[in-house]
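Before relying on records like the one below, remember that each one covers exactly one chain. Contacts with other chains, cofactors or solvent are not represented anywhere in the record.
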Amino acid sequence: MNEHSPGAAFETGAVSHAGRVRSHNEDNLVVQPEHGLWAVADGMGGHQNGAMASATVAASLSAIGPAASAAELLDRLEHSVIEANAELRRKIREHDGATMGSTLAVLLIHGRHFACVWCGDSRIYLVRGGRITQVSRDHTEAQDMIERGLLTVEEARTWPRRHVITRAIGVHDRPELEIDNGELEGGDVFVLCSDGLTDHIRDEEILRAAGSGGAQAASDALLALTLERGATDNVTVIVVRYHHDGGTEKTRWVPNMRQRRSDAP
């Protein structure tokens, strides 16, 4: 059990695996419950470039450190992502314009409030009251087609361009991040994962795993099921279970992240 604030505790499980097909793992993760930070980064650009991209993002996030407020934690995250993006842009120039980038899915918690921040197709789920909700929205061509009514969700699962992402850290001079936030409830479970999991696992299976046993057991079970089904990509899973003893600590989120939504001014 990992303590973060008075009256609250977080149980964390995490696992990352190269999968059954790929020889290198281009995913990276950050687990810092003491700072209210959990993150998954999935690199793109081939073995070396993809691993370098996700490691650059993860290293920047790992240096965020403790924050005195929710607003400060969010500011620190924004600053770290901007720094990682600039570093990747520099590396791309050094490698003659080589393809290099990383998706990002982040869970921030301060006091009784949470924020989910993402870019790309790594996902964040919330399990609450026996139901599962995908908090993040995939930044992919497939998701855009679904929202335009040109593909169904089932058709998108096998669409040839389903893995083409429309946002990633390092792709543009300034990263485009999306954010959602809310107040925690006792028993909440968050699942962060790379698309190597969701290529093989349905939402109801994530719900079943997250709703039973401990956080690490849930992470291991989801990985085992993915490996059983072929694991054609790298697989990374973080499960965070929130416990609260009834304390009254409150913290207000003040989101100020630029371009946090696709329709942001």
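The helical segments are 47-62, 70-94, 141-147, 153-156, 195-198, 203-210, 215-228.
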